């Protein structure tokens, strides 16, 4: 069983919350194998991910939904996706500007995720992060449970990419099924596409077949 903090209130974030949420997401994502691959220079990692999430929070507030906890210790950025991705003409330029000399790897990840993305209506969990000092205490599960309650009321599926086995196992406990891993390069970190299907007769549908337009890098 996963632990969900019942003492936390989850609400929709606003622009006023960005100064508090930015360091939470930057610190949560600037460690681990993905961060080491994307930004090989350790001294640059926190600055790069701070710029990256400044941009991603702006996009999330503008085009999606950002959830946070009442104590601002965690955040999740969600989007609604239809059969085709929504056009964001400023996305690639903003991503390059935010990540500077490390942009090629961030753009490679972005292209890989888009190529593998399911082509049917669903909710997309683009990012979820918790203050590193408070991880493994149910904050992430509270954010997930809040979103899933609304999605289940619509019987809408959800999709995400897990960046390590620990997170993959957490999402599995919340009803997600993992597909075959994908890598941006042969030496890059693996990511697991994960699908939380609709309920049919009390049984949740299993993971989608691979996107026919996706080809794994050689």
TrEMBL record:
Keywords: Transferase. Transmembrane segments: none annotated. One of its GO terms (molecular function) is acyltransferase activity, transferring groups other than amino-acyl groups. Residues 8-199 form the N-acetyltransferase domain. This is Acetyltransferase (GNAT) domain-containing protein. It comes from Micromonospora chaiyaphumensis.
